[in-house]
Design brief:
elongated; Rossmann fold; 7 helices; 5-stranded parallel beta sheet
Length: about 170
């Protein structure tokens, strides 16, 4: 059976990778799909091509994982790709309440099932938005994201990283 792991992945985190790696052991094929959200247009740190490149780098070691993108309803993508299972990662109960509503809606309008995979406890506090915030100040996020994300964040915020490193040298 094939599954889709949708999200904005701006950038992909270690929590996402934990869920994705575990899903890749359950399903024959998993497609990580960057969904375009018109309401978030212009609010992403990384553009679509950058996010796809980061995802390809982060998932290269997973032989049954592919990367794609789609704009529109997820259920339309699922029908187009002939996939029937949506993978969603959960960090906390608050995630579950929101994701449950969406799962019910997707089942109602698209007859697709959602499988929830709990992120490992060590990643339950990590979110893409928090990672972006820390990285924007030159903070070390290398434990919270795969190497491809860490390198992309460093390139995006190279001035902040340089300033932080210079400040640390001055204090010594």
């Amino acid at each position: 059976m094939n599954a889709v792991f949708p999200g904005s992945f701006d950038p992909i985190t270690s929590g996402h990778m934990d869920v994705l790696t575990r899903a890749s052991r359950i399903f024959e094929q998993v497609t990580v799909t960057v969904m375009h959200n018109a309401r978030k247009q212009g609010r992403h740190l990384f553009d679509l091509d950058e996010r796809l490149d980061i995802l390809r780098g982060a998932t290269a070691h997973l032989g049954n994982v592919s990367v794609d993108s789609f704009g529109g309803l997820l259920v339309d993508y699922m029908a187009q790709q002939q996939k029937g299972i949506i993978i969603r990662g959960l960090r906390a109960v608050s995630d579950y309440e929101y994701e449950l509503q969406i799962a019910h809606l997707n089942r109602q309008i698209g007859e697709v099932e959602t499988v929830f995979i709990m992120a490992a406890t060590r990643w339950s506090f990590v979110s893409s938005s928090m990672v972006r915030e820390i990285a924007s100040y030159g903070g070390d996020v290398s434990e919270m994201v795969p190497r491809a994300s860490a390198e992309a964040l460093r390139r995006k915020f190279d001035v902040a990283y340089a300033e932080r490193a210079a400040g640390q040298l001055e204090r010594r």
